[in-house]
Amino acid sequence: PGPHTDDMVKKLKERRDYSYKRLRQIEGITCNNPQGAFYLFPKIDFSEFTKWKDDKEFVIDLVKKTGVCTVYGSGFGDEYGKGHVRLTFLPDLEMLETVYNLLEDFLK
């Protein structure tokens, strides 16, 4: 480790913390704070958003209408992934803000 590594870790923690906070502000989404991954795995409350039958339909509609690309959680197995989406927090804060704004508007 050196200064570059320390700087990158600091940036990633900032992006993780921002992403976690921002996702929790979006109605109908719950999210755990990741402790060692470069992504978040928020749960979408599909009882509240009935225009999508599942997470796969949701991510397809999201990318078609907003350009925001996520991975549907059920692709990682129904037991833990069903109803979730996978989002990375590697982009810079400006891009993350844009993504979360698009996601929030999409859910309205």
Automatic annotation (TrEMBL):
Residues 4-97 form the Aminotransferase class I/classII large domain. Its cofactor is pyridoxal 5'-phosphate. One of its GO terms (molecular function) is transaminase activity. Keywords: Aminotransferase, Pyridoxal phosphate, Transferase. PANTHER family: GLUTAMATE-PYRUVATE AMINOTRANSFERASE ALAA (PTHR43488:SF2). This is Aminotransferase class I/classII large domain-containing protein.
